[in-house]
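call fold(seq) -> tokens
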Amino acid sequence: MHALTSLLALTAQPGRAEQAVMIALCLAGLAWALSRRPWHWLRRDALQHGWLGALVLLALLWTVRATLPGGLVIQLFGATLMVTLFGLPLALLSLFVVDLVSWLGLGYLAGQGWAQLDWALLWPRYVWMGLLPALLSAALQGAMRRLLPRHPFVFILGHGYFTAGLAALGAGAARALWRSYSAGGSVLSLPDTLIAVLILAFGEAFLTGMLVAVFVVYKPEWVVTFRDEEYLGN
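ret:
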């Protein structure tokens, strides 16, 4: 009862409502992922190396961003790559670890101590860069598995390039609409927003598609969504 009262108090204050929504979304996504017990995939010795490498890669990726004129920020997600390599449940947990580690890294680079970090920003970062693009990626990949033929070329193009680009477009557009709504008006002009989202989507598609193609060919044991019996006819 005390926790419910605290949550209602948060939502009653300007700005706190947005924070409460972000926290609720994060906890719901993480609770679902934990309920699936995805860590059984990590019992594979070969997959453990790929998973640890992916965590390091994405933690570095989340600390690098480009700021365009007008304050537009371009920052790659890597969420589609995690979903393709490890499946949605493990990807959601891994992306939260990446969010936490990269946030600590950004604070260290800025010379901030543990107590100086704005921990409230941890939750929206996870929603917009991890949870939402991961969910969109899983939905798109599920539709592709049902509608498209099972072929390695289709897998690489569909799960790598197209899914990453479309998920980034969807997540970027949703983030822009949310910011516009929460700010009580349009923060950025539509052309500027579209430029930022398109640049982000192109980068996501290129990076994810390239890595998925490499892993499918050279390290298929790292890609749990790619099964030889389905895509190679074995």
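The chain has one domain: 2-231.
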